[in-house]
User: Which sequence fits this backbone?
């Protein structure tokens, strides 16, 4: 469960640091770049100046990926390829005989769990992700619940999936070849999965993902206002116009 814990713990530590600083907690001013600072601790070649290269000219945030699927990013190329084949050839699970998927070494090492027992396991299982992509045409959070692992239809599809490592593939690539019971074989190769900068999500797709994540927590009216504030972030007089909507008690109540 550590993987899921990382993001929340980092956010918690950031908030705690801000609150402590606000209340006067002191610390060494060079805790990051000092001779015995965090940089030197974690790197044998630490150089603060590297972090300033291209300042004001290039922005690393523009290279971020937005994940359209609720699984490990390294499963996304295989999901994309499967969904593409499903759409293009109107594939039905019962018409599939075998599924051959080629992925990078890193995907094999990190995201090819062969026998997931929980929804969290399934997020790191390329065979499971291929199975739900073929069955549902998507890979949302609701498909990575513990009860879905016990779905016999998904289980049978997973048995048809074979994963192979292909050295020439990058971590963003995957090849999926599906052999049908009719004897026909269809295949598709993904170079850039949906959501990465080279194959970015549309504004509509980004908002759809946001709504899927916010709807279980907030009422529709509040979600509408949150998204309105987000799209106009640069014109807000204060960031509290947004944060107050995300932090008030009883979030399911109307704003």
Assistant:
């Amino acid at each position: 469960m550590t993987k899921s814990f990382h993001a929340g713990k980092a956010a918690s530590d950031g908030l705690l640091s801000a609150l402590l600083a606000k209340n006067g907690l002191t610390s060494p001013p060079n805790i990051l770049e000092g001779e015995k600072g965090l940089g030197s601790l974690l790197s044998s070649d630490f150089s603060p100046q590297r972090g300033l290269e291209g300042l004001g000219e290039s922005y690393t945030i523009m290279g971020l990926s937005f994940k359209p699927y609720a699984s490990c990013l390294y499963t996304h190329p295989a999901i994309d390829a499967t969904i593409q084949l499903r759409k293009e050839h109107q594939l039905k699970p019962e018409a599939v005989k075998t599924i051959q998927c080629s992925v990078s070494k890193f995907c094999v090492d990190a995201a090819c769990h062969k026998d997931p027992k929980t929804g969290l396991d399934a997020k790191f299982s390329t065979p499971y992700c291929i199975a739900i992509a073929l069955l549902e045409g998507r890979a949302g959070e609701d498909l990575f619940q513990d009860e879905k692992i016990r779905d016999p239809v998904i289980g049978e599809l997973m048995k048809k999936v074979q994963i192979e490592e292909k050295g020439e593939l990058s971590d963003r690539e995957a090849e999926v070849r599906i052999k049908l019971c009719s004897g026909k074989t269809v295949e598709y190769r993904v170079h850039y999965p949906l959501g990465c900068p080279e194959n970015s999500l549309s504004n509509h797709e980004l908002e759809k993902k946001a709504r899927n994540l916010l709807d279980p927590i907030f009422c529709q009216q509040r979600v509408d206002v949150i998204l309105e504030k987000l799209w106009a972030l640069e014109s807000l007089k204060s960031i509290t116009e947004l944060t107050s909507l995300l932090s008030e008690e009883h979030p399911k109540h109307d704003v």
Remarks:
- The chain is about 40% helix and 10% strand.
- The first helix runs from residue 2 to 22.
- Residues 151 and 250 are 35 Å apart (CA to CA).
- The chain has a mean pLDDT of 93.
